[in-house]
Amino acid sequence: MHCGKDEMPYEKKYPGGNSLLLRIAGALFIATGVLILIFCIPGWAWLSLIGVVLIVVGIILILQS
């Protein structure tokens, strides 16, 4: 069943196009955010996150076997 429209109904259109300056600025914002997280989150929080990841991986491995 065709509705008579030639364009795709779910076509994505992003503003700004392919601006290199916007891509560089976005990458800088991401890198700055990651550095702030790394330096401001205390060590015990990183260790607890690693512990949770190890528990999840262990559960996945047990369920796979």
3D architecture notes:
By secondary structure, this protein is mostly helical. Helices cover 66% and strands 0% of the residues. It has a domain at 21-64. The model has no long low-confidence stretch (mean pLDDT 84).
Overview in brief:
This protein has 65 residues and is mainly alpha-helical. The chain has helices at residues 20-40, 43-64.
| Helix amount | 55-70%
Counting H and I runs of at least 4 residues, what is the number of helices?
Answer: 2
Query: Mind summarizing the main beta sheet?
Result: none
Name the average pLDDT.
84
- The arrangement of helices and strands along the chain is HH
Name the structural class.
mainly alpha
In what range is the share of β-strand residues?
under 5%
Q: Radius of gyration in whole Å, from Cα? A: 22 Å
Distance between the termini: 47 Å
User: What best-fitting shape do the alpha-carbon axes yield?
Assistant: flat
Count the strands?
0
List unreliable stretches of 5+ residues.
Answer: none
Helix/strand layout:
Elements: H1 20-40, H2 43-64
Keywords:
mainly alpha; 65 residues
